[in-house]
Amino acid sequence: MLHDIGKLGVADAVLKKSGMLTDDEWSRCAATRAGWRAGGVNRRRAGTVCQHTNKGWEAMRGFGLTIEPLAGDAVCVALRGELDLEHAYTFDEELRRVEGGRPSCLVLDLRGLSFLDSCGLARLLAARRRARREQRRLLLVRGGAAVQRLLAITAVSEHFETVSDVPPELRVAAAGVAREA
């Protein structure tokens, strides 16, 4: 059985294949964000656990965000790396700190995300609920293809105001400097 959203970017024909993967299929799976680690003797059997272990990806693992003041009291939080189970609540904690400043507009920039799972998705939805409750405008800057695909197939994108970039009216020279969190 495949784990969570780890199958994004892997062709359905490969995911549903009951036998061994060809070398070409294996290399295409390994090239996706999901990577593949299978338990047992048959490491190349389809339909096992999708979890990344390739050393190339290990170097990219992690999560970070940058908090940037925008025009007025608006704030941009730019996310990078993987917003997954391991990092979802760190993100939520930092976002709540930003929300504590009561910005009228909060921009979540997803362009730097390489991966988003259901835990990260849940934290985005929680941010949306808080924004509605506190009558704060919440914008999502569209992420990469894998992030956008997850938002689309879960119909979550319909619940957010999404933009391609931070709106120019918010980019006016803001006092302060971006800070890493």
Molecular structure report:
With 181 residues, the protein is an alpha/beta fold. It folds into 2 domains: 1-54, no CATH class; 63-180, STAS domain (Transcription Regulator spoIIAA, 2-Layer Sandwich), CATH 3.30.750. The chain is 30% helix and 21% strand. The chain is built from 6 helices and 6 strands. The protein has a 6-stranded mixed sheet with strand order 5-4-3-2-1-6. Strand 2, helix 4 (88-100) and strand 3 form a beta-alpha-beta unit. The chain is elongated and about 55 Å long. The protein starts with 11 loop residues before the first helix and ends with a strand. The model is unreliable at 1-7 and 33-60 (pLDDT under 50).
Concise structural overview:
This protein is of the alpha/beta class and 181 residues long.
SSE topology:
Blueprint: H1 12-15, H2 23-30, H3 55-58, E1 63-69, E2 75-83, H4 88-100, E3 105-116, H5 118-133, E4 137-141, H6 145-153, E5 161-163, E6 179-180
